[in-house]
Write a structure and sequence with these properties.
The structure is a single chain. The longest helix has 15 residues. This protein has 145 residues and is of the alpha/beta class. Helix 7 packs across helix 8. Helix content is 46%, strand content 18%. Strands 2-1-3-4-5 form a 5-stranded mixed β-sheet.
Amino acid sequence: MDPFLLAAIEEARRGLAEGGIPIGSVLVHSGTIVGRGHNRRVQRGSVILHAEMDALENAGRRSAGFYRECTLYTTLSPCPMCSGAVLLYGIPRVVIGENQSFMGEEQWLSSHGLQIEVQQDKACIELMREFVRTQPSLWAEDIGK
């Protein structure tokens, strides 16, 4: 398994263990994880702290050129907010664990020239499937339903 997707899955599991939503993300530059994060909306009472946003925040302030050399790994297809951040910072590649539970803005990102790779990873699918089954109202809140 891809070690960076595995790191994102570890983040998702960390979020679930904290009572949150099991979505994780890592930002990778030159083969090194520079930012890790997981969905912390529940834990922090945040409206915007999705996994991708958390990973970007934890990467710290970086130059535009730095982001243009990164890959973002996320366990679930990114929502419009997170996709906007990816596009804003010029991250050229996004690796997605799965998009069966939620289809984000993959086509929009692709239309802007980003490389999108969807893994349909079994662990990612199972994490979300179980969470949606056991926490449907929290899941609906997270995706704005």
